[in-house]
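Submission checklist for the structure archive. All mandatory fields must be present; incomplete records are returned to the submitter.

[x] Identifier: Iron complex transport system permease protein
[x] Organism: Marinobacterium lutimaris
[x] Residue count: 344
[x] Sequence attached
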Amino acid sequence: MTPSTAATSTARGAHGALKPLSLLCLLTLLAALCFLSVAIGTREVSWEEIFAALNGQVNTVGEAAVAMRIPRTLLAVIAGAALGLAGAIMQGVTRNPLADPGILGVNLGATLAVVIGLAWFGMSLASAYVWTAIIGAGVTAVFVYLIGSLGRGGATPLKLALAGAATSIALSCFTLAVVLPRNDIAGGVRSWQIGGVGGATFDTLNLVLPFLLAGFAISLLSARKLNTLALGDELAAGLGEKVALARATAGIGAILLCGATTAACGPIGFVGLVVPHLCRLLVGVDHRWLLPFSAVFGASLLLLADVAGRILARPSEIEVGVVTAFIGAPFFIWIVRRQRVRDL
């Protein structure tokens, strides 16, 4: 082995050793944010009340306030992880740096399906919300992919982004048209459409958790297939990969994550766009590392946005969907300016 080869091998080994350490640091940050989330709110609480509430006591108003923040914190963690992971999956499946559950219209498809269920079919069962949102997300994802596949060149990243943007605008208009004549549901729907985790309960968590766990499992098991798809369809097929099946499997995982999260929190945007890009700066493009990093980073980002929303507007709150929009919109503009059209 030459000295240059040995140096390269040593550098790669050192870089590889940094990935587990970076993941551990992210998990430590997430744990600290979880503690901040149960400690900070519109009502100030003492350390004694925090620890008492964490031990299951609700004898005072402060302890009851902390107890209400616990399911909110857990929902923010799993929702952020789901959105970050779904964004990484969608960017890998479409090979599009602008892919995101919000930009491709998947979240809005789930939103429209839930609104139609409420307004036209009198949907009341909590489990029906989740199934309806997942179906809406799935139909929208397939529709956007089919539209983006039309014409010469197939489903190019630019065509998918344009198809998703156009579909998002249309779905927003349809949702507004369904809600406007229904004053009985308009207030609740508009509040839910902002996107937030403030109304979380353990019942909500128990309802969406099976769908999210299935989505996490399918998505994380798709890492190797996404690495192969990144080489291009022809080369992936030459290596024995069933391209259509690989895309469909990974897509199902992302749809489960987006649909269940939208049903529980409303359409929260930009987390799936911002997080995978930041994680690539840490771990590169290997999806075996990118996917778990995106999940942990997404959980940390959404939890941080929720805590910031409580601090910035005291004694009121800013919904987490508004905070993520303030973070994500400038980031989206930066990506568009950084990427040349032919590279999208």
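[x] Structure attached
Curator remark: Residues 70-343 form a domain with the ABC transporter involved in vitamin B12 uptake, BtuC fold (CATH 1.10.3470.10). The first helix runs from residue 3 to 39.
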